[in-house]
Amino acid sequence: MPYAPVLSPLPVTETNPVIVTPVFRPANSTHTGPTITAVSQVILPINLNRRRLIIYNDAASQVFIMFGPVCSPTSFSVRLATNTMYDGPLGDYTGAVSAVRSSGTSVLQVTEITT
Predict the structure, then answer these.
(1) d(CA 85, CA 105)
(2) DSSP state at residue 68
């Protein structure tokens, strides 16, 4: 495992040692293609090992994403237009993620990166 030093502006001494902490990097990914309809559904359950989340909407209409178990076209976290992507920051959110469309059916491309 790689390590990263924690740097201090003070000189290294017995009372001010160099502290080295491990750097955790994602090691696994899982891809799913959930079918999204006008009924809210959880597309990813809670996962405490989640380090990153990537959602791509290649459907012909927008999809609404909620960082939580229930989503609606009027209560959402992210609106994904056609051919757009949400790429969450590293270590951003580990809770349930849900999705919904205003009408019709489409398939999302969802990648969850974990340790």
Answers:
(1) 18
(2) S
